[in-house]
Amino acid sequence: MDDRELAPKREVDARVHRQLFLDDESIAWRVGLPRKMHRPDRQGPVLEPDSEAGEVALQSRSVPQWNSEKGYWEWWYWGGWSCEPYGQWATTTKQLCQLAISTDGLDWEKPDVGRHEWKGSKHNNILVDPEHGSRAFYHVVRDERDPDPAKRYKGLLNSDGRKPAFSADGVDWELVEDSDIVSSDESHFFYDDLQNQFVALVKRGTGWGRSVFLATTEDFIAWQEHGIVLHADQEDWDNRWPRVKQVIDDPSYLSPPLVDNGNYMAETYQMAAMTYEGFYVGFPGLFNPAGAIPPPHMNHTGINQAELAMSRDLKRWRRLCNREVFIGVQPWDGVSYDTAQTLLCGSPQLHGDEIRIYYNACRFRGHKELHDEKYHPYFKATSALSLATLRRDGFVSLHAEASGELLTQPLRFQGADLYLNADAAGGDIQVEVLNADTLEPIGALTRANSESIKSDDLAHQVSWFGVDHPGSVIAESGLVRLR
Length: 483
Fold this sequence. Notes:
This protein is mainly beta and 483 residues long. The chain has 2 domains: 106 residues; 356 residues, Glycosyl hydrolase domain, family 43 (Tachylectin-2, Chain A). It is built from 2 helices and 32 strands. Strands 1, 2, 27, 28, 30 and 32 form a 6-stranded mixed β-sheet that branches. Strands 4, 22, 23, 24 and 25 form a 5-stranded antiparallel β-sheet that branches. Strand 6 and strand 7 form a beta hairpin.
């Protein structure tokens, strides 16, 4: 190792969190192991609009919430219902706050809540008066940590700014007085179990276009503003036209209906985030405009796609894998909804050995009259709530084309064994553990004595010949070398 420069030594406690290597925090050096993004497997829509009844779109900025008392998942979403044009933007849909439930998070039903009349009947799943409740429930989280049952649900309400509120049942809410969060029409909200706080990532306009701002609270009453935390930059602006041109030039994709020569900026449309193994994973939605929509509708055609980012403090974000698209638009086949916009509903969720990513899949951006008549029948169902799944820890891997080598920072084990999430099918991985001071192997934990890993598994138990319990050999910490 004489010809390799080690990163400054820092001990990492491997007993608390898995080490994912999305950044170099726990890496001393690596060679031949570039990072590779792994896109999730799309499972298709799990909730679609009831087009026969006049419902034409579904969206949500919440993810399913587990109700341990009732034994099922609850999901707050907006149903877009066809109506006569109204308002400043000649809107042709009315958005209603609705509820779906599921025992497994996969198959969903729309319960009869019997609260509000719609189309002559109260037999529906509408939670807010249709005359007053457009997007009233912007975000809903069920908080089973709070000892006060009247605050079992926490929410950010309203589409014009966000108003924190409490609820006992997720239906009737009490607003927190004098506690508003400035936001335009996009935001995300989640509980941060790393810092024991609630987090709002909201969209506001800046000189960089749409940008992401951070607000946090520990008591859900007093909110602290932290300012802007993510915005588009020159690299995003340079990416805009090639990404738009890709769908224009490929006839299998749905081209934006209006494309002009405007020198538009790519913008950070929104960003969902989650806590994961001691840090934060973000999913910035990058909007790439293609053409200006004329009055009265305004706005722009284009594509919206989710990328990946990470942070260790919520304030400084690192974009991952050269800003590759994580969940992007798909070719037009008359079935998929993922043809114009893919935006996360909220924080992905870990279910056993898979990560579930619920997202908004939108067929179009721009009103029906902009599109060719052959697409008009599809405006009866323009968006759905879809699911994509990813193997546990599987956002980004260190990938060896031929061979590679990795040395970690000193990892604190204190008697714990070592496990590796790796796909070594068609190759092999050998492991040794080095003394942090001498960089010599610890006892029999050498490469020569390592039992090679040659398969794909989420939790390979690393072992060495003749060593019954490797963790007992490592008294405190050691550097792990993989090759």
